Amino acid sequence: MWLADTTFIIDLVNNDEGAVKMAQIIDRMHSVVFISAITIQEYLRGIYYLFGNKLNQIDKKLSKAEGDLARFSGLELNYNVAKAAAKIDADLTRKGEQIGYADVLIGATAQFYQLTILTRNDKHFQKIPDLKIDIY
Prior knowledge:
Elements: E1 2-4, H1 6-13, H2 17-29, E2 33-36, H3 37-51, H4 58-70, E3 73-75, H5 79-94, H6 101-112, E4 116-119, H7 122-125, E5 133-135
Parallel strand pairs: 1-2, 1-4, 2-3, 4-5
Helix pairs in contact: 1-2, 3-4, 5-6
């Protein structure tokens, strides 16, 4: 099972060839793809950035975005995920290999729930030890 990174969701919505092919493979396997609360926040934040001041469009865009996200099973950010993320962040900082905190939280979510990250942006995720990554 997978945990889709925000990049995968955006690419899938934008009909990126690699993301669409990966989604088709997953569909044929009848597997579940999860998303983290962080991905939900990042995706919806993008809608607010793009359309938040366009009152005639924001409700429609949010409704579509929520429909996009509803295809996936959402995972909560809980105490155990936050604790794992704190350790990952501290370890990476000590090594001088910091990554964005959103990616730390997404990676910690994947590790805690024993999922494989689904992304094309493996540069940051590769720095998290023992994280399983599928690149499309």
